[in-house]
Structure formats: C-alpha cells, structure tokens
Specification:
The chain is α+β, with helices and mostly antiparallel strands. It folds into two domains: 91 residues, Translation initiation factor 3 (IF-3), N-terminal domain (Ubiquitin-like (UB roll), Roll), CATH 3.10.20; 83 residues, 2-Layer Sandwich (Translation Initiation Factor IF3), CATH 3.30.110.10. It is built from five helices and ten strands; from the N terminus they run ββββαββαβαβαββα. Strand 9 and strand 10 form a beta hairpin. The protein is elongated and about 85 Å long.
Length: 219
C-alpha cells in the first residue's frame, strides 16, 4: 500500500517543463496528502500520461508499487510523478554525504610581522604563510605599531608589500594593507589553480558518469 510520507524536491525532476516557466516546490506532498481533484501525471519512466483524476493516479501508483509525488503544485492542473521514494531517499542521502565530504571549511591563519622585522624572520614567516596558502587557507598578515612607529606607517606598508611579493606564486591579495587603530592588516587568499586540459577533460568525464548513474537510479 502507498503510505503518507513527505519528500524533498528531487534534482531528477528539474528538467520537467510544460511550455512555460513554473515555480517548483521545495517540499513535496505525496499520496493521500495530495488533495487536488485531478493532476497531470508522469509515470516512473518519465512518460506523460495526461490529466487524470487523483483517484486514478493513486490507484496507478499503488498498482505499480510507487508513490505519487506532487512535483509542480503551481501548475494547472498540478503535475505529479510516480517514484520509488525509498530508492530516491537512499540516493539523496548518498549525494548529501558526498557533498559534505567534498566541502572544506576555509580557515584564516594569522602571521604577525613587525615594522622592524629581520630578514631571517621574514623568510621564516613567508614559508609558513605559503604552507597555509597551499593548504587552501587564507592568511591574515598583521603588524602592530608600538610607540612612535605609528607615525611612520609607510614602513609597515613596505614590509607588508614585500611579504606579499614573497608569497605571490601561491596567493592573491584579497585585502591590501590598511591601518586599523595601531594595527595594519593585509589578507592573502590562495591563488586559483588553473587546471590543464587533461584535468578538465577528466573532471567532465567523471561528472558525466556520475550524472548517468544518478539518472539510471531514478528511472
């Protein structure tokens, strides 16, 4: 028997159109939750079955062992589709896990300099910043001016720009050196890596395989 369950909009239905732009629901009603008298029905294979009564649609869903999902409630009449909800829920959960696995939180690491920093210290801190940037993190570079040093902030700017030059192969300046009270701050962000043609081709092929596999599971 079809049971009452609420589902989230499946990506596989994003290409369903009926001659005009229709708002798509972010949350679907299914089975007995659907109260419309008639619906435009699409079967589990994507074939349009035309406009039928809600009772006919529910009976067909039960006969074929699928759930009836209301995928375009704003359409007149609303569009419904037969789907295997359990299979869909599994695939959706799998995609969400993959998306979370591929996500990376960008941290902001801080490197502190001084207006009178020695060459050896600059080199050491530049190497540290390069490691952070190569790891995908941003780097906040700061200088705190002490006493009368604030009157010669241009020295700090020069130190900052020299530091950015040492990191230029792996970074881009997201925020140029600016005074904030007695502190000068500059932000360096990782430079986007240009992918080779071979890498771009491999990525496209992988995405195509994933899309094809996802489509097969939906059918």
């Amino acid at each position: 028997m079809c049971d009452q369950r609420r589902v989230v909009w499946p990506a596989a239905f994003s290409d369903v159109h009926f001659g005009r732009c229709i708002d798509i629901a972010t949350e679907l009603l299914i089975n007995e939750e659907i109260r419309d008298r008639e619906v435009r029905l699409i079967d589990e294979n994507g074939e349009q079955l035309g406009v039928v009564s809600i009772q006919q649609a529910l009976e067909l869903a039960e006969q074929r062992g699928y759930d009836l999902a209301k995928i375009q409630p704003a359409a007149v009449p609303p569009v419904c589709k037969l789907l295997d909800y359990d299979k869909y829920r599994y695939e959706q959960s799998k995609r969400e896990r993959e998306n979370r696995k591929n996500q990376r939180v960008v941290d902001i690491k801080e490197v502190q300099l001084s207006a009178t920093i020695e060459e050896n210290d600059v080199n050491t801190k530049a190497k540290m910043a390069v490691r952070f940037l190569e790891g995908g993190d941003k780097v906040k570079v700061s200088i705190r001016f002490r006493g009368r040093q604030i009157a010669h902030s241009e020295i700090g700017t020069k130190v900052m720009l020299d530091f950015a030059e040492r990191c230029k192969d792996v970074s881009m300046m997201e925020r140029s050196p600016k005074l904030d009270g007695r502190n000068m701050i500059m932000i360096l962000a990782p430079k986007a890596i240009k992918a080779s043609f071979a890498e771009k081709k491999a990525k496209k092929e992988a995405e195509a395989r994933e899309k094809s596999a996802s489509k097969e599971t939906q059918e």
